[in-house]
Design a protein that fits this description.
Layout lengths: L10 H6 L18 E6 L14 H9 L5 E2 L4 E2 L5 E6 L6 H17 L3 E6 L5 H5 L6 E5 L19 H9 L4 E6 L4 H4 L8 E4 H7 L1 H11 L4 E6 L21 H11 L3 E7 L9 H22 L1
Parallel strand pairs: 1-4, 1-5, 5-10, 6-7, 6-9, 7-8, 9-10
Antiparallel strand pairs: 2-3
The structure holds manganese (II) ion (2 copies).
């Protein structure tokens, strides 16, 4: 016995010697975990640049380059209870993928854990939301995603906010970073049941005013969904449908960390490594760290 009978926890050091498609700080097994990461490599309804099915492992690889110690919160992520289940097997059919996500997130929620879902495209969020009740939702997105149907499909990634409104109800959803919508969407009567805070408003009013407004509008339980095209393409170039004039990385971090103690479910989606310079999965990996470390810092208080 190498340690002469003394039981040491060498998991982090041992794992660092191997290549592995797993979030590097995910050392817990499912039973012991608080945060349950899994990938959904699905991009079948994407309308422009495909490739988000390749994103989960690009985030895992990028994460390998980050320190486990988070200096801003004095939290070591190796001590946080994170597990990475791997990727859900997906097929071409969005209905099937959403029902699989619904099934697994139901179990994760019932076990009192937080699902952290890596897309894949934005449509995957709806599967998790089917299990969310009596909660608010914060979305980061360039697009309103408010079409009732797109390309003959109500579960297309262009319809996510509309489906979320049906599941969660009026005045529960705040979508931040909006700068692309259609005439038809903005003129639908239901549009005003969601608070869309445009990227221009964020720039004009400042992030603190935006956070104050979200605080007044949101409940104590929040589902948080990040469509990476909400960022300006300068910060996140590798996305399926890029839109100029977006949010900064620091703005989104501020929103995420202001509410992380209330978050019950989290997803990051719409990244496509095929059009990337490497910055997009790195930002996604960092957002996962900021979410978990800031939340753990709140819980310690
Ligand atoms: Mn979206
Ligand atoms: Mn979008």
């Amino acid at each position: 016995m190498g340690s002469y009978g003394k039981k040491e926890d060498n998991a982090a050091e041992l794992i660092s010697h191997f290549s592995h498609l797993k979030i590097a700080d995910a050392l817990s097994d499912y039973v012991d975990s608080d945060y349950v990461i899994f990938g959904v490599p699905f991009d079948n309804t994407s309308s422009y640049r495909r490739g988000s099915r390749l994103a989960p492992n690009s985030v895992r690889s990028a994460y390998d380059n980050l320190e486990s110690y988070e200096v801003n919160y004095n939290i070591d992520l190796l001590n946080c209870k994170i597990c990475d289940l791997g990727d859900l097997p997906v097929y071409e059919d969005v209905d099937y993928v959403l029902s699989e996500i619904e099934t697994v997130t139901d179990i994760i929620f019932r076990d009192g854990k937080i699902p952290v879902m890596l897309g894949g495209e934005h449509s995957i969020t709806v599967g998790a939301l089917r299990n969310v009740k009596d909660a608010s939702m914060i979305i980061i997105d360039a697009h309103s995603d408010f079409r009732d149907s797109y390309m003959d499909n109500k579960f297309n990634h262009a319809c996510v906010t509309r489906r979320a409104l049906e599941l969660l109800g009026e005045n529960r959803i705040i979508s931040i970073g909006t700068r692309s919508t259609s005439y038809e969407e903005i003129n639908s009567p239901e549009y005003h049941n969601v608070r869309f805070i445009s990227a221009n408003e964020v720039r004009k009013n400042g992030i603190d005013a935006v956070i104050d407004e979200i605080r007044k509008r949101s409940k104590n339980r929040i589902y948080f969904s990040i469509d990476m095209d909400g960022f300006d393409p300068a910060y996140a170039p590798g996305v399926g449908t890029p839109e100029p004039y977006g949010l900064t990385s620091v703005d989104v971090r501020s929103i995420l960390t202001a509410f992380s103690d209330k978050i019950i479910g989290f997803d990051i989606n719409e990244m496509t490594p095929l059009y990337d310079n490497g910055n997009t999965p790195m930002l996604a990996a960092k957002l996962i760290q900021d979410f978990i470390a800031s939340r753990e810092a709140y819980l310690k208080k």
